[in-house]
Amino acid sequence: EPEVTQTPSHQVTQMGQEVILRCVPISNHLYFYWYRQILGQKVEFLVSFYNNEISEKSEIFDDQFSVERPDGSNFTLKIRSTKLEDSAMYFCASRENQETQYFGPGTRLLVL
Amino acid sequence: GENVEQHPSTLSVQEGDSAVIKCTYSDSASNYFPWYKQELGKRPQLIIDIRSNVGEKKDQRIAVTLNKTAKHFSLHITETQPEDSAVYFCAASPWFSGGYNKLIFGAGTRLAVHP
Asked: Best of A4, A42, A61, A97 to disrupt the B interface by mutation (most B CBs within 10 Å)?
């Protein structure tokens, strides 16, 4: 069964550094999402992406964040200048025309 | 704003007992309500979902009920087994065809099933 994949599984970075989190959605899916989960807290919506543009973003998704679909398979989340509070598990999700969103395994980001 | 409240935060049951987790939502436009199970260190996995035109849905030991008037929905697990132990998240979404369908999650319920 096809699954959403994410790399890396873990990322440790210094505050102020740029990080790029990568996702490969399920191949025939059209809608892509990033969510984050701070340790012990709820999963929070960051951004949705469709037809090569952002369709909706949350208040968390400020100017330090960007998303890109550089080719037909990858979907990336970039944080330009990481802050301590960006430490979290970041989940990519995708769906086709139906409602169900399928989540990737996550990237655990630790900002020191 | 959009919010989903989930209770209880932790739930401990004996194997074979039933478990019930409840959620309420604030956005009247919400019409799609999935439940995800997340085992430690793993991705959230969809276990069941319900749409607003249905009041109840069942899949083997798992059932979900929805009360749109009261804006709440519940997950029922019967005959619990140790492998049901996980964190369960409810979510709500104002889904429509062609829409973007972000999920608003509850805070999660940590279910422990003791043998």
From this structure: A42
